[in-house]
User: Which sequence fits this backbone?
Protein backbone atom coordinates (compact mmCIF):
# COMPACT_ATOMS: atom_id res chain seq x y z
CA UNK A 1 0.00 0.00 0.00
CA UNK A 2 1.36 3.37 -0.96
CA UNK A 3 0.28 6.21 1.26
CA UNK A 4 2.28 9.21 0.19
CA UNK A 5 2.59 10.19 -3.45
CA UNK A 6 5.80 11.98 -3.40
CA UNK A 7 9.09 13.17 -4.63
CA UNK A 8 12.08 12.92 -2.33
CA UNK A 9 11.68 14.71 1.02
CA UNK A 10 8.06 15.47 0.29
CA UNK A 11 5.04 13.93 1.86
CA UNK A 12 1.85 14.59 -0.02
CA UNK A 13 -0.77 13.64 2.43
CA UNK A 14 -3.99 13.99 0.52
CA UNK A 15 -6.54 11.55 1.73
CA UNK A 16 -4.39 10.44 4.62
CA UNK A 17 -7.15 11.05 7.12
CA UNK A 18 -9.34 8.53 5.35
CA UNK A 19 -6.50 6.02 5.27
CA UNK A 20 -5.76 6.52 8.95
CA UNK A 21 -9.39 5.95 9.79
CA UNK A 22 -9.42 2.82 7.66
CA UNK A 23 -6.36 1.64 9.56
CA UNK A 24 -8.01 2.51 12.85
CA UNK A 25 -11.25 0.92 11.77
CA UNK A 26 -13.37 3.93 12.65
CA UNK A 27 -14.60 7.14 11.12
CA UNK A 28 -14.80 10.69 12.28
CA UNK A 29 -15.84 13.97 10.79
CA UNK A 30 -13.72 17.03 11.23
CA UNK A 31 -15.73 20.16 11.56
CA UNK A 32 -13.75 23.18 10.55
CA UNK A 33 -15.11 26.61 9.98
CA UNK A 34 -14.04 28.01 6.64
CA UNK A 35 -12.31 31.37 6.50
CA UNK A 36 -12.64 34.22 4.00
CA UNK A 37 -12.74 33.18 0.32
CA UNK A 38 -9.38 32.76 -1.39
CA UNK A 39 -8.38 33.40 -4.99
CA UNK A 40 -6.85 30.89 -7.38
CA UNK A 41 -3.09 30.50 -7.27
CA UNK A 42 -3.13 31.66 -3.68
CA UNK A 43 -1.41 29.54 -1.08
CA UNK A 44 -0.12 29.40 2.44
CA UNK A 45 3.27 28.23 3.66
CA UNK A 46 3.88 27.59 7.34
CA UNK A 47 7.53 27.02 8.30
CA UNK A 48 8.21 25.41 11.67
CA UNK A 49 11.85 26.42 11.76
CA UNK A 50 14.22 24.10 13.60
CA UNK A 51 15.75 26.22 16.36
CA UNK A 52 16.47 23.34 18.72
CA UNK A 53 14.76 23.72 22.10
CA UNK A 54 12.66 26.77 21.23
CA UNK A 55 9.98 28.02 18.87
CA UNK A 56 10.05 29.98 15.60
CA UNK A 57 7.23 29.79 13.06
CA UNK A 58 7.08 31.77 9.81
CA UNK A 59 3.71 32.00 8.09
CA UNK A 60 3.55 33.24 4.49
CA UNK A 61 0.37 33.91 2.55
CA UNK A 62 1.38 34.15 -1.07
CA UNK A 63 -1.03 35.30 -3.76
CA UNK A 64 -0.79 36.85 -7.20
CA UNK A 65 -0.42 40.40 -5.93
CA UNK A 66 1.61 40.09 -2.80
CA UNK A 67 3.20 38.01 -0.08
CA UNK A 68 2.18 38.58 3.53
CA UNK A 69 4.46 37.41 6.30
CA UNK A 70 4.03 36.74 9.99
CA UNK A 71 6.50 35.40 12.53
CA UNK A 72 5.47 33.71 15.76
CA UNK A 73 8.48 33.65 18.13
CA UNK A 74 12.16 33.78 17.24
CA UNK A 75 13.99 31.02 19.10
CA UNK A 76 16.84 31.61 21.54
CA UNK A 77 19.31 34.51 21.63
CA UNK A 78 21.79 32.65 19.46
CA UNK A 79 19.19 31.94 16.75
CA UNK A 80 18.62 35.56 15.71
CA UNK A 81 21.16 35.72 12.88
CA UNK A 82 20.14 32.34 11.49
CA UNK A 83 16.47 33.34 11.52
CA UNK A 84 17.16 36.61 9.72
CA UNK A 85 19.00 34.62 7.03
CA UNK A 86 16.25 32.00 6.81
CA UNK A 87 13.56 34.67 6.42
CA UNK A 88 15.59 36.53 3.77
CA UNK A 89 16.01 33.25 1.88
CA UNK A 90 12.21 33.01 1.81
CA UNK A 91 12.02 36.47 0.24
CA UNK A 92 10.78 38.19 3.38
CA UNK A 93 11.31 41.97 3.43
CA UNK A 94 8.40 42.98 5.62
CA UNK A 95 6.90 41.14 8.55
CA UNK A 96 3.28 42.23 8.64
CA UNK A 97 2.96 40.77 12.12
CA UNK A 98 5.31 39.54 14.78
CA UNK A 99 3.90 37.66 17.73
CA UNK A 100 6.18 37.20 20.73
CA UNK A 101 4.04 34.62 22.52
CA UNK A 102 5.57 35.19 25.97
CA UNK A 103 8.84 36.62 27.28
CA UNK A 104 10.79 33.38 27.82
CA UNK A 105 14.17 33.40 26.12
CA UNK A 106 13.48 30.30 23.98
CA UNK A 107 10.68 32.29 22.29
CA UNK A 108 11.79 35.92 22.15
CA UNK A 109 15.58 35.33 22.21
CA UNK A 110 16.21 36.18 18.55
CA UNK A 111 13.42 38.74 18.28
CA UNK A 112 15.70 41.79 18.60
CA UNK A 113 17.71 40.70 15.54
CA UNK A 114 14.53 40.04 13.56
CA UNK A 115 13.02 43.43 14.47
CA UNK A 116 16.25 45.14 13.37
CA UNK A 117 16.47 43.08 10.16
CA UNK A 118 13.03 43.71 8.64
CA UNK A 119 10.28 46.24 8.21
CA UNK A 120 7.68 45.43 10.83
CA UNK A 121 3.94 46.06 10.72
CA UNK A 122 2.44 45.15 14.07
CA UNK A 123 4.14 43.50 17.00
CA UNK A 124 1.83 41.67 19.37
CA UNK A 125 3.05 40.67 22.83
CA UNK A 126 1.24 39.90 26.08
CA UNK A 127 1.02 42.50 28.87
CA UNK A 128 3.74 41.05 31.03
CA UNK A 129 7.38 41.89 31.56
CA UNK A 130 10.40 39.74 32.30
CA UNK A 131 13.33 40.93 34.30
CA UNK A 132 15.89 39.62 31.85
CA UNK A 133 18.48 41.11 29.53
CA UNK A 134 16.81 39.21 26.64
CA UNK A 135 13.51 40.97 27.28
CA UNK A 136 15.26 44.36 27.58
CA UNK A 137 16.97 43.81 24.23
CA UNK A 138 13.64 43.16 22.55
CA UNK A 139 12.13 46.29 24.13
CA UNK A 140 15.12 48.33 22.98
CA UNK A 141 14.76 47.03 19.43
CA UNK A 142 11.03 47.90 19.51
CA UNK A 143 11.63 51.46 20.68
CA UNK A 144 14.62 52.02 18.35
CA UNK A 145 12.31 51.23 15.44
CA UNK A 146 9.58 53.53 16.81
CA UNK A 147 7.19 50.59 17.05
CA UNK A 148 4.49 50.19 19.63
CA UNK A 149 3.33 46.90 21.09
CA UNK A 150 -0.21 45.69 20.44
CA UNK A 151 -1.80 43.80 23.32
CA UNK A 152 -3.71 40.62 22.47
CA UNK A 153 -7.49 40.71 22.88
CA UNK A 154 -9.15 37.28 22.60
CA UNK A 155 -11.67 37.13 19.78
CA UNK A 156 -9.92 39.84 17.74
CA UNK A 157 -9.18 38.82 14.14
CA UNK A 158 -6.48 40.15 11.84
CA UNK A 159 -6.10 39.63 8.09
CA UNK A 160 -2.90 38.10 6.71
CA UNK A 161 -3.55 38.57 2.98
CA UNK A 162 -6.30 36.08 2.24
CA UNK A 163 -5.75 34.27 5.52
CA UNK A 164 -7.04 35.43 8.86
CA UNK A 165 -5.96 34.77 12.40
CA UNK A 166 -7.91 35.16 15.62
CA UNK A 167 -6.46 35.66 19.08
CA UNK A 168 -7.56 32.89 21.48
CA UNK A 169 -5.50 33.69 24.59
CA UNK A 170 -4.46 34.92 27.12
CA UNK A 171 -7.91 35.26 28.67
CA UNK A 172 -6.81 36.62 32.07
CA UNK A 173 -4.54 39.44 33.27
CA UNK A 174 -2.76 37.64 36.03
CA UNK A 175 -1.13 34.23 36.03
CA UNK A 176 1.33 32.47 38.31
CA UNK A 177 3.23 31.03 35.33
CA UNK A 178 4.73 33.18 32.58
CA UNK A 179 3.82 30.37 30.16
CA UNK A 180 0.09 31.03 30.67
CA UNK A 181 0.48 34.56 29.32
CA UNK A 182 1.28 32.93 25.94
CA UNK A 183 -0.59 34.40 23.01
CA UNK A 184 -2.58 31.64 21.31
CA UNK A 185 -4.11 32.10 17.88
CA UNK A 186 -6.01 30.18 15.24
CA UNK A 187 -5.18 30.88 11.61
CA UNK A 188 -7.63 30.03 8.85
CA UNK A 189 -6.85 29.81 5.14
CA UNK A 190 -9.74 28.60 2.99
CA UNK A 191 -10.86 25.39 4.64
CA UNK A 192 -7.51 24.71 6.31
CA UNK A 193 -6.77 25.89 9.83
CA UNK A 194 -3.89 25.93 12.29
CA UNK A 195 -3.61 26.52 16.04
CA UNK A 196 -0.52 27.95 17.74
CA UNK A 197 -0.47 28.31 21.52
CA UNK A 198 3.13 29.09 22.50
CA UNK A 199 3.81 27.56 25.91
CA UNK A 200 0.24 28.00 27.25
CA UNK A 201 -0.43 25.52 30.05
CA UNK A 202 -3.53 23.52 30.99
CA UNK A 203 -5.06 26.54 32.76
CA UNK A 204 -5.01 28.69 29.62
CA UNK A 205 -6.28 25.78 27.51
CA UNK A 206 -9.24 25.47 29.86
CA UNK A 207 -9.97 29.19 29.55
CA UNK A 208 -9.86 28.91 25.75
CA UNK A 209 -12.32 26.00 25.90
CA UNK A 210 -14.63 28.07 28.12
CA UNK A 211 -14.50 31.14 25.89
CA UNK A 212 -14.68 29.69 22.38
CA UNK A 213 -17.01 27.32 20.54
CA UNK A 214 -15.57 23.95 19.62
CA UNK A 215 -16.14 24.68 15.95
CA UNK A 216 -13.99 27.80 16.27
CA UNK A 217 -11.16 25.63 17.58
CA UNK A 218 -11.31 22.55 15.32
CA UNK A 219 -8.19 22.66 13.16
CA UNK A 220 -6.18 20.55 10.73
CA UNK A 221 -2.85 21.36 12.32
CA UNK A 222 -2.01 21.85 15.99
CA UNK A 223 1.43 23.07 16.91
CA UNK A 224 1.59 21.41 20.27
CA UNK A 225 1.92 23.67 23.27
CA UNK A 226 5.11 23.97 25.29
CA UNK A 227 7.26 21.72 23.09
CA UNK A 228 4.94 18.76 23.74
CA UNK A 229 4.90 19.05 27.54
CA UNK A 230 2.36 17.11 29.61
CA UNK A 231 1.61 20.30 31.55
CA UNK A 232 -0.28 21.41 28.42
CA UNK A 233 -2.02 19.60 25.55
CA UNK A 234 -4.84 18.30 27.74
CA UNK A 235 -7.20 15.62 26.47
CA UNK A 236 -10.10 18.10 26.40
CA UNK A 237 -8.07 20.54 24.34
CA UNK A 238 -6.94 17.88 21.86
CA UNK A 239 -10.53 16.65 21.64
CA UNK A 240 -11.76 20.14 20.72
CA UNK A 241 -9.06 20.84 18.15
CA UNK A 242 -9.24 17.33 16.72
CA UNK A 243 -6.21 17.88 14.48
CA UNK A 244 -4.95 15.60 11.72
CA UNK A 245 -1.36 16.77 12.16
CA UNK A 246 0.62 17.61 15.28
CA UNK A 247 3.84 19.63 15.10
CA UNK A 248 6.32 19.61 17.96
CA UNK A 249 9.19 22.09 18.15
CA UNK A 250 11.86 20.78 20.51
CA UNK A 251 15.59 20.13 20.73
CA UNK A 252 17.30 16.78 20.27
CA UNK A 253 17.76 15.03 23.62
CA UNK A 254 16.56 18.14 25.48
CA UNK A 255 16.85 18.12 29.26
CA UNK A 256 13.08 18.55 29.77
CA UNK A 257 12.25 15.21 28.15
CA UNK A 258 10.04 17.01 25.58
CA UNK A 259 7.88 15.76 24.05
CA UNK A 260 6.53 13.89 27.07
CA UNK A 261 5.59 10.27 26.51
CA UNK A 262 2.00 10.69 27.82
CA UNK A 263 1.42 13.28 25.12
CA UNK A 264 2.95 11.10 22.40
CA UNK A 265 0.69 8.24 23.55
CA UNK A 266 -2.38 10.49 23.31
CA UNK A 267 -1.43 11.68 19.84
CA UNK A 268 -1.04 8.07 18.72
CA UNK A 269 -4.37 7.07 20.24
CA UNK A 270 -6.00 9.89 18.29
CA UNK A 271 -4.25 8.95 15.03
CA UNK A 272 -2.62 12.35 14.83
CA UNK A 273 0.32 12.32 12.44
CA UNK A 274 3.27 13.86 14.27
CA UNK A 275 6.22 15.79 12.85
CA UNK A 276 8.99 16.94 15.20
CA UNK A 277 11.78 19.43 14.60
CA UNK A 278 14.19 17.26 16.63
CA UNK A 279 13.62 14.37 14.21
CA UNK A 280 12.58 16.04 10.94
CA UNK A 281 14.45 19.37 11.12
CA UNK A 282 12.55 22.33 9.70
CA UNK A 283 9.00 21.34 8.72
CA UNK A 284 7.11 23.24 6.01
CA UNK A 285 3.36 22.85 5.53
CA UNK A 286 1.86 24.00 2.25
CA UNK A 287 -1.86 24.67 1.83
CA UNK A 288 -3.87 25.70 -1.21
CA UNK A 289 -6.85 26.32 1.04
CA UNK A 290 -8.13 22.78 0.54
CA UNK A 291 -5.31 20.29 0.83
CA UNK A 292 -2.21 20.14 2.95
CA UNK A 293 1.22 18.80 2.02
CA UNK A 294 4.24 18.55 4.27
CA UNK A 295 7.95 18.81 3.47
CA UNK A 296 10.68 18.04 5.96
CA UNK A 297 14.32 19.10 5.95
CA UNK A 298 15.67 15.78 7.18
CA UNK A 299 15.17 12.45 5.51
CA UNK A 300 13.41 10.79 8.40
CA UNK A 301 10.52 8.40 8.07
CA UNK A 302 7.16 9.46 9.40
CA UNK A 303 5.67 7.41 12.20
CA UNK A 304 2.11 6.26 11.70
CA UNK A 305 1.53 3.46 14.14
CA UNK A 306 1.13 2.76 17.79
CA UNK A 307 4.88 2.44 18.36
CA UNK A 308 7.47 5.18 18.14
CA UNK A 309 9.52 3.16 15.69
CA UNK A 310 10.57 4.80 12.43
CA UNK A 311 12.57 3.94 9.37
CA UNK A 312 15.24 6.55 10.06
CA UNK A 313 17.47 5.93 7.06
CA UNK A 314 17.51 4.28 3.63
CA UNK A 315 20.84 4.08 1.84
CA UNK A 316 19.93 2.49 -1.48
CA UNK A 317 23.51 2.39 -2.78
CA UNK A 318 24.78 0.60 0.32
CA UNK A 319 21.54 -1.44 0.37
CA UNK A 320 21.05 -0.56 4.01
CA UNK A 321 17.95 0.42 6.02
CA UNK A 322 18.11 1.81 9.56
CA UNK A 323 15.16 1.46 11.92
CA UNK A 324 15.13 3.46 15.14
CA UNK A 325 13.06 3.23 18.31
CA UNK A 326 12.39 6.83 19.39
CA UNK A 327 10.12 5.73 22.22
CA UNK A 328 10.92 5.08 25.83
CA UNK A 329 9.90 1.44 25.79
CA UNK A 330 11.67 -1.53 24.21
CA UNK A 331 9.86 -3.02 21.21
CA UNK A 332 9.97 -6.65 20.05
CA UNK A 333 10.32 -6.58 16.27
CA UNK A 334 9.58 -10.32 15.95
CA UNK A 335 7.22 -10.81 12.99
CA UNK A 336 7.56 -7.21 11.81
CA UNK A 337 7.97 -6.78 8.04
CA UNK A 338 10.14 -4.35 6.09
CA UNK A 339 9.01 -3.86 2.50
CA UNK A 340 10.86 -2.51 -0.52
CA UNK A 341 7.78 -1.13 -2.25
CA UNK A 342 8.90 -1.14 -5.91
CA UNK A 343 9.92 -4.78 -6.06
CA UNK A 344 7.61 -5.80 -3.20
CA UNK A 345 10.50 -7.62 -1.51
CA UNK A 346 9.90 -8.41 2.13
CA UNK A 347 12.17 -8.89 5.12
CA UNK A 348 10.54 -10.54 8.15
CA UNK A 349 12.22 -9.89 11.47
CA UNK A 350 13.04 -12.78 13.77
CA UNK A 351 12.54 -12.05 17.49
CA UNK A 352 14.64 -8.96 18.20
CA UNK A 353 14.22 -6.53 21.10
CA UNK A 354 14.86 -3.03 19.80
CA UNK A 355 15.77 -1.14 22.92
CA UNK A 356 14.40 2.37 23.56
CA UNK A 357 16.59 4.91 21.77
CA UNK A 358 18.52 2.33 19.77
CA UNK A 359 18.65 1.39 16.09
CA UNK A 360 18.86 -1.77 14.02
CA UNK A 361 20.09 -2.14 10.43
CA UNK A 362 18.92 -4.45 7.66
CA UNK A 363 21.11 -4.80 4.60
CA UNK A 364 21.67 -6.69 1.38
CA UNK A 365 24.29 -9.40 1.03
CA UNK A 366 27.00 -6.93 0.01
CA UNK A 367 26.67 -5.02 3.28
CA UNK A 368 26.64 -8.19 5.42
CA UNK A 369 29.67 -7.05 7.47
CA UNK A 370 28.04 -3.77 8.49
CA UNK A 371 24.46 -4.69 9.35
CA UNK A 372 22.52 -6.49 12.07
CA UNK A 373 20.33 -8.47 9.66
CA UNK A 374 20.85 -9.56 6.07
CA UNK A 375 18.12 -9.52 3.48
CA UNK A 376 18.51 -13.10 2.16
CA UNK A 377 18.01 -12.36 -1.52
CA UNK A 378 20.35 -12.60 -4.42
CA UNK A 379 21.07 -9.22 -6.03
CA UNK A 380 19.97 -5.78 -4.89
CA UNK A 381 16.73 -5.04 -3.12
CA UNK A 382 16.46 -1.30 -3.73
CA UNK A 383 16.10 0.35 -7.12
CA UNK A 384 18.87 2.88 -7.65
CA UNK A 385 17.28 4.42 -10.74
CA UNK A 386 13.65 4.69 -9.68
CA UNK A 387 11.66 5.73 -6.64
CA UNK A 388 11.54 2.89 -4.13
CA UNK A 389 10.01 3.78 -0.75
CA UNK A 390 10.37 1.60 2.32
CA UNK A 391 7.49 0.57 4.56
CA UNK A 392 7.52 -1.04 7.97
CA UNK A 393 4.61 -3.09 9.32
CA UNK A 394 4.22 -4.53 12.81
CA UNK A 395 3.38 -8.18 13.46
CA UNK A 396 -0.35 -7.43 13.19
CA UNK A 397 0.06 -5.84 9.76
CA UNK A 398 -0.32 -2.21 10.93
CA UNK A 399 1.70 0.23 8.86
CA UNK A 400 4.13 1.77 11.35
CA UNK A 401 6.46 3.89 9.25
CA UNK A 402 6.98 5.03 5.67
CA UNK A 403 10.27 6.26 4.25
CA UNK A 404 9.66 8.19 1.06
CA UNK A 405 12.09 7.99 -1.82
ZN1 LIG B 1 9.26 27.37 25.46
Assistant:
Amino acid sequence: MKIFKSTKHRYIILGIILILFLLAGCSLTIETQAGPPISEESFLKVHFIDVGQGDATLIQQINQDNTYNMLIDAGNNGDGEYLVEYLKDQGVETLDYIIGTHPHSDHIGGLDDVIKGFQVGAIIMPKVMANTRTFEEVMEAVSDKGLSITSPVPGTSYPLGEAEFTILAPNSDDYASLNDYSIANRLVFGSNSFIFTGDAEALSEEEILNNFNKRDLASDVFKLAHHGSSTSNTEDFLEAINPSYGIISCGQDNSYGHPHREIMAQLKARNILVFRTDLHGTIVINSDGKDISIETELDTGVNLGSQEVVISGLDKIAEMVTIKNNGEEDVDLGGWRLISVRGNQEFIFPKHILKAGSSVTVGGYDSRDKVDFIWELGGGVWSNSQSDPAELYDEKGNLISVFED
